[in-house]
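Recall that a protein's primary structure is simply its ordered list of amino acids. Everything else, from secondary elements to tertiary packing, is in principle encoded there. The following example makes that idea concrete.
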Amino acid sequence: MQLRPILIILTLAATSILGCNRQSDAPADTSPTQSASATPESKIPAFTPINDAPTLTEDSLHAVEQKYSCQLPDDYRKFLLKNNGGFPSPDCVDFEEAGQKTASDVFCFFAIGDERAWASMEWHHNTYSGRLPKNMLPIARDSCGNLWLLCVGGEHAGSVFFWDHGSFDTFDETDLANWPRVATSFTKFRDNLRIFDAAAKNDVVPSRYALVKQTTERMAKKNDANFSTRANPEFVFLCHCDEDGDISMQFVRYKIHAAITHTCGYSRLRAIEGVIKEGQTRLPE
């Protein structure tokens, strides 16, 4: 399939201008606008802690396991004891979705026991209750509010999956078989994070990573040279797509976006290009 040129239209929601706090919980970082190398390198990522995230103990992790009736994989448990959430660098995940090559970012790994919506594993578990597949814990999100899920039971225990919260109502989103498995363990998922390769072409449509990267760079050029998504963790990118396939991105408050957005423009773009079947918009209950 030949992909026609896609116009990226930058639009800023009012909240992105009035609500951004440059003295926020996260350090100013250029991710996901970091420079791409000619040959992306995999390496164990560095983690910038989430400010004021609670320090975890074995007792607190045991309480989590009791609360969610699960057993945390050993590698994820060790990660939480050392890093209760955090911002990884590099942050790009390459994977296949609906048989197509794509990429997205790990904006942050969630913290346990944190009361801030954007940082809290518990908040995401509660917010998406009834929508997530069985035996899944949300452990991280990307810059568009989609989730990285860790399987804590069943035949895929320990594996990490990608879950798009903005999909069409054309399939059962609670069926794990409908979501791409991106790693067979938390360790492999973490260690496979890499620098985004801007020269790499996706099969049909631009990746979420590419769209966010382009928009972030334009926002920095147009509004504030020091702008970064990590300096504004309470905000997230919302994708719109018109009937011609033209994309616009808005920077909106995360808590609202996560709770009410059930279908986004990225799914519509994929449907226009024939990657997925378009259907009814998912609506909040």
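The domain at 8-272 is CATH 3.40.1580.10 (SMI1/KNR4-like). Confidence is low (pLDDT under 50) at residues 1-8, 12-30, 33-40.
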